[in-house]
Fold:
Amino acid sequence: MRSRIVAAGLFLAGCIGPSLLGQSSHINPWEPVNLAPLPPIASLSGGVWMKGDLHVHSRHSKESSNNSIGKILSYSHSVGLDYICITDHDNHVLGDVEHHTWADPEFKSEDSLLLLYGAEWTTTRGHGNVFSAHPYDHQRLYDVRDQRDIVVGAVKKELGVHLSANHPSGKDHFGYSYDMVDSIEVWNSALWSKNANAIMIWDDMLSSGRKLTGRGGSDAHHGLPDTPEQATKNSPQAKYNYIGTPTTWVFAKERTRQSVVDALTNGRVSVSANPYAPRVEFYADLDQDGKMDMMMGDNTKATGKPVKFRVQLTGKAVLADATYTVKVVKDGNPYNTYTMTGRAAVAEFTDTPLEKGRTYYRVTVEGPSTPYPQVPDSMKLSEPMVGLSNPIYFNFDPNF
Structure:
């Protein structure tokens, strides 16, 4: 009897066929398509590299110690930072950042050290940092912290600020939709090893079409005490993790606060282990004429032809006798590993991005640690990490 039923089932399936079962008529409306012309790629020479820290706490965060705004700014000057954002916890002042951190007499931006406006959006669903070139009504964002994502996203859009997901894995992970953020903190503090899950989340978002900038942030809370009497149990942290561990580089059109935020949003960004470590730069030569046409953060349509990519290290800390390891990630998966040596440390490779459908490439660079005398124990935590790049994108829909 069973064999007859099976035979009858096979006979009926053969008679009905795929078309009658409705399988051949389905068209996925979300299949990759040829995109309309994308915005032109910005100049690779008309800009300036600027380095800074995008996650620092001052005395206006209750758990911070020996870290006044004046001390933060003076220290940032001393290690050559170009910009900084002090991101105090907004819940410590019930959202009123304007009359606390920003109203502090020491909160002063200068041409030599640009001071962004921001705060750490501290909620029961996780933490995020806000970055802005100008004062904004942070109270509104704090007030909707427990509302649905669609409400939060609408307020964020009205405020015109850059919202970034902080330490997205582990304690205080970002528990909101990534559709309403512009960047993600892929390297939090000097302790590189704890960021593996953050990198995985970043790759998940990139692979699904979300063009999110990867950035760093020291999340430094504690400065060194000026006198022995001011020391706390947390004071030793300043020797392991402090301002600049890691350092986020942006390629800004000009030396202004708005250009820093714009570069961060556009993804022309790399992250180094500390302010003295080499900067990772990542470029692509689309027609292989020897001239680079795009850099990390840029997005263009693929032609179906091979593209030559270049990774290079820049800075006085590049060692003449050192070997650096470049790890290339393509669409979230390991693609290949290369080595580069010498002060003109360069590695090149060629690959063909999909003509239809998204492709992205990003790199990490490992090698000798760069000394950071002011934070001497940070090298132990950063391990072999020198720096990382943001992706170069092909066929990413800007209206996604």
In short: The mean pLDDT is 94. The helical segments are 2-20, 69-78, 138-143, 149-159, 196-207, 257-266, 378-382. Residues 2-20 form the longest helix (19 residues). Residues 48-394 form a domain with the TIM Barrel fold (CATH 3.20.20.140).
